[in-house]
């Protein structure tokens, strides 16, 4: 279950309804989707070859079908990150700075965890996402993403338009004026 950290409260927001409502008010869609039991052996492996990734993607295909029927998602892929991946820090450095995309950023975390930072409606807050969290961040939303101390995540990414996936970077000082 996602946890939300804001400057307004000492304790994180972690009750399902409160998490969903907080994010909805910020324009972010959140769902909690339990993984099937049949996916668990592959989910427990740190590294996956292409065939294993495809097998795992197929085990979540019902989610893709559900999303395709509601939205215009056209493709999906999977990212598997762990400390053994060559160039992990350089890869992560592209996304841990304030940026936005012209396509939605849609992620289904199927294993591991990570942290999104947002600046929406003049408020900065962080959302820790972990296994079974689905999050859909609208296009043009100011955000960053980083891994936590475990440095492990498996996530399915859903795309409407792959060309909208390039990050557009923003200076921290400009955040107050961009909404
Ligand atoms: Fe991003």
Give the averaged pLDDT, no decimals: 92
Per the CATH scheme, the topology name is: Jelly Rolls
How many domains is the backbone divided into? 1
Please give the largest β-sheet: 8 strands, antiparallel
What distance lies between the first and last C-alpha atoms, to the nearest angstrom? 27 Å
| Approximate strand percentage | 25-35%
CATH architecture: Sandwich
Tell me the helix content.
10-25%
The small-molecule ligands in this entry are:
fe (ii) ion
Shape: globular
CATH superfamily: Jelly Rolls
Radius of gyration: 16 Å
Number of helices: 5
- Which regions have little confidence, pLDDT < 50, spanning 5+ residues? none
Oligomer: single chain
According to CATH, what is the class?
Answer: Mainly Beta
Q: Helices and strands, in N-to-C order?
A: EHEHHHEHEEEEEEE
Structural class: alpha+beta
How many extended strands? 10
Could you please describe the fold and organization of this structure?
The protein is an alpha+beta fold. It has a single domain (3-174), classed as Sandwich (Jelly Rolls). 22% of the residues lie in helices and 34% in strands. It is built from 5 helices and 10 strands; from the N terminus they run E-H-E-H-H-H-E-H-E-E-E-E-E-E-E. It has helices at residues 16-25, 40-43, 50-59, 61-70, 88-92, and strands at residues 3-6, 29-32, 75-81, 99-100, 105-120, 123-130, 133-137, 142-147, 153-159, 168-169. Strands 1, 2, 3, 5, 6, 7, 8 and 9 form an 8-stranded antiparallel beta sheet that branches. A two-stranded antiparallel sheet has the order 4-10. The radius of gyration is 16 Å and the shape is globular. Fe (ii) ion binds next to strand 8. Residues 95, 99, 101, 105, 143, 145, 167 line the site of fe (ii) ion.
């Amino acid at each position: 279950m996602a946890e939300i950290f804001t400057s307004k409260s000492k304790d994180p927001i972690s009750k399902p309804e409160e998490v969903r409502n907080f994010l909805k008010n910020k324009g972010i869609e959140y769902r909690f989707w339990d993984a099937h039991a049949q996916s668990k052996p592959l989910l427990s492996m740190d590294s996956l070859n292409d065939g294993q990734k495809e097998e795992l993607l197929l085990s979540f295909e019902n989610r893709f079908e559900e999303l395709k029927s509601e939205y215009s998602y056209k493709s999906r892929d999977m990212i598997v990150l762990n400390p053994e991946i060559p160039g992990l820090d350089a890869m992560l450095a592209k996304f841990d700075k304030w940026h936005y995309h012209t396509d939605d950023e849609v992620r289904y975390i199927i294993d591991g965890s990570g942290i999104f930072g947002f600046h929406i409606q003049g408020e900065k807050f962080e959302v820790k996402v972990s296994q079974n969290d689905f999050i859909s961040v609208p296009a043009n939303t100011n955000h960053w993403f980083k891994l936590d101390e475990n440095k492990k995540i498996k996530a399915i990414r859903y795309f409407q338009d792959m060309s909208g996936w390039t990050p557009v970077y923003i200076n921290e000082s400009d955040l107050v004026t961009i909404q």
